[in-house]
Amino acid sequence: MLSDVLHAVFHDTLFVKYGLAGLFFNGMFSSFIPIPTEVTTSTLLLGGVNPIHVFLVLTVGSIIGGYIAYYLGYNGRLIGRLRKSTPKYEQKSMSIMTKYGWSTIIFFSPWIPILGDIISIIAGTKKYNIVKYSIAMTAGKTVKSSAIVFFSIHFLHWLLNILH
After folding, report:
1. Of 36, 58, 59, 65, which Cα lies nearest the Cα of 124?
2. Any residues with CB less than 8 A from the CB of 68 and at least 6 apart, and which?
3. What's the pLDDT score for residue 34?
């Protein structure tokens, strides 16, 4: 029973089926839709994919997704719907960014569930400086990707030692 559940989670999820290409799209979409990348990352590492390849693909996908999210805000087409559907998240994001500074929040936004996905869109809406955005977003996504790969490797190693 447990093995069936684990198989369904680790082998039958949409992004896992497509390997590194799936991880790329998972990383990209997770920048503006709350879709975690940890399952795809862990599964690929468990399957023997080179950790450096996993890190690079996840990082590049996440960074491209960050630019897409910024563009969605900058372009403004989806913002009308976003404001109607999530006004409390937008208000909360704006107050956090004002309190702690835009660059700091953009750097940490990949770690903030739901609000983090909206922060890049809001940065685009507010036409936040693209150079500052690029530096903070790229650094934040790179640090998060390295942490996910690092901890996935160590967690999986620990878990496999316990199970054997």
Report:
1. 65
2. 28, 31, 32
3. 81
**Token pair recorded at residue 86:** 């999530």
How far from 10 is each of 1, 41, 128, CA to CA, in Å?
A: 14, 10, 38
Domain range enclosing 88: 2-163
Q: State the total domains in the chain.
A: 1
Instruction: Evaluate if pTM is beyond 0.90.
Output: no
44 in Cβ contact with 74 (< 8 Å): no
Q: Left (φ > 0), alpha (ψ -120 to 50) or beta: where does 50 sit?
A: beta
Blockwise average pLDDT, block size 10, the chain, 164 residues: 48 77 94 86 91 98 95 77 58 74 90 83 91 97 96 80 70
